[in-house]
């Protein structure tokens, strides 16, 4: 048995989950926010109870020390030496990383070099890696990439129809994200269906604040809706998803905003928030639509119809589909979105039960037993995938 910690570090936050492996039991989980700002927030979930503390946390290294102190404080470990591995979620692995890797000086340097492709995310992830290295220098550390699962996409899927040398010279291509989640739910779907993943064509819909759809054939991602960045694809909480690129100079001209400002609008003020003018949180939109708010209703329709179209397109790419999977905050919880996404898909063999659809956050098949295409709700678990990879990846033995 061993204790493995899964880490997701952002620029001012750090999420963690400590697992007992191989049982995959979660011993403790938590979130540290406002690192480097005043009034940091340390939230920890231990034995089903939430403990919150407001305390200044100057940097990530201090956050890591506090976190490790908590583990001994709550008696989760007798000594921090019991931690045998650390798994770090890294957003961008470019074309270099097709799988998780051991973090060494060399691999860490490559991740830093990829910051060009993910300037908001990779540097923050690296800060997390370094903070742990400072405090636990001799513990095995592994990087798990959001992009890795999608590295199996064929060129016809990942290549933009732009001058080819942009791909060669600047790495301009579709990378895709949420890979760890798409991989987890696809593997779990195969388990639940009792069929080898090699034989399955799956469409996985990860619908959270960020949302992406993936076409998974034989366990491999062959296409996904996010692109060079997570801005592409379906409409999201605050992101526009795909738009006509010619709109960017047009909006700049009309509104007098700079290109950075327009990009900010596309990332933070569009999607469900932009259309509804109310909120990026789907629960608020569902409530407003229920009360007759037209723009909230429109936001629900735009959000679900984009996903609906991706399902048709991915089914076409795989010459059919065996199961459609819903996951993440909206996918797991919103019967309203699921029912709209699945509307009118009987023509392709999707028969689902509205009564079974009335469920939140539970693993469940909501299609009728006779439905050729299964529809499944599978709560995602990126953290356990990280912990599994930490166990799986060997440490080289030096003689
Ligand atoms: P993130 O991408 O930040 O991890 P989540 O996967 O937590 O996001 O998803 C957040 C989204 O899930 C929000 O839009 C939220 O409104 C939605 N959501 C969570 N619970 C429910 C629910 N019970 N009904 C409808 N939507 C929900």
UniProtKB/TrEMBL annotation:
Pfam families: Acetate_kinase (PF00871). One of its GO terms (molecular function) is acetate kinase activity. Homodimer. The record marks 178, 239 as: Transition state stabilizer. InterPro entries: Ac/propionate_kinase, Aliphatic_acid_kin_short-chain, Aliphatic_acid_kinase_CS, ATPase_NBD. It is found in: Cytoplasm. This is Acetate kinase. It catalyses: acetate + ATP = acetyl phosphate + ADP. HAMAP family: Acetate_kinase (MF_00020). Mg(2+). Can also accept Mn(2+). Belongs to the acetokinase family. PROSITE patterns: ACETATE_KINASE_1, ACETATE_KINASE_2. Catalyzes the formation of acetyl phosphate from acetate and ATP. Can also catalyze the reverse reaction. The keyword Membrane does not apply. Its cofactor is Mg(2+); Mn(2+). Substrate binds at residue 89. The active site is at 146 (proton donor/acceptor). Its EC number is 2.7.2.1. ATP binds at residues 15, 206-210, 281-283, 329-333. Mg(2+) binds at residues 8, 382. PANTHER family: ACETATE KINASE, ACETATE KINASE-RELATED. Pathway: Metabolic intermediate biosynthesis; acetyl-CoA biosynthesis; acetyl-CoA from acetate: step 1/2. Keywords: ATP-binding, Cytoplasm, Kinase, Magnesium, Metal-binding, Nucleotide-binding, Transferase. It is an enzyme of class 2 (transferase).
